[in-house]
User: What shape does this take?
Amino acid sequence: MKFFLDTANLDEIRDAASYGVLDGVTTNPTLVANEGGQRGFKELVREICEIVNGPVSAEVISTDIERMLDEARELAQIHHHVVVKMPLTEDGIRATKKVSEEGIKVNVTLVFSPSQALLAAKAGAAYVSPFVGRLDDISNIGMDIVREIVGIYKNYGYPTEVLVASVRHPVHVVEAAKTGAHIVTMPYKVFKQLVKHPLTDIGLERFLSDWGKTKK
Assistant: This one.
């Protein structure tokens, strides 16, 4: 499974990248806005691409197809790591089909059903992002949707990778891995929680304490 970080914060990305296990980054307009506009959007995306040796998702903000196409082509020129995020809308699917045929990789986002994911794959999306946490919020089981999407893609050999998004905690990461999803994108906080376990800390403290009692 590939690990992506869901953030636009450069310090968080640098720290996660230092582990040697970070495969990519996903951003969205909210995450970019949270960085306070200290640098231009394109400059920020370019800096992220230079830190991470892998896909970096940058999202269009237009909702009509012509502007989506213009934005997608412009974003793709920022860096060869850029993957264009398109929303799962009618024009989003139309735009995905067109730019995918031009060789631009697309991550179709805001996916909440297997039927939407099937459309995205048929349109040529490189990635599809089901939002598990938001489905959990409305009393659906988000991971069930992921299982269905993974199964459908296997049935027909779609190359589209399932990128599990809206991840809230480490259990989501483990459950995503159990479904066979290709990628999980997570907030920095969740990434840091993956390494933590109280028994690890207790065990290490005990080992070091016992070692301190031995003669050197």
In short: The two ends are 43 Å apart (CA to CA). The beta strands are 2-6, 24-26, 56-59, 82-87, 106-111, 127-130, 161-164, 183-186. The chain has one domain: 2-212. Residues 2-212 form a domain with the TIM Barrel fold (CATH 3.20.20.70).
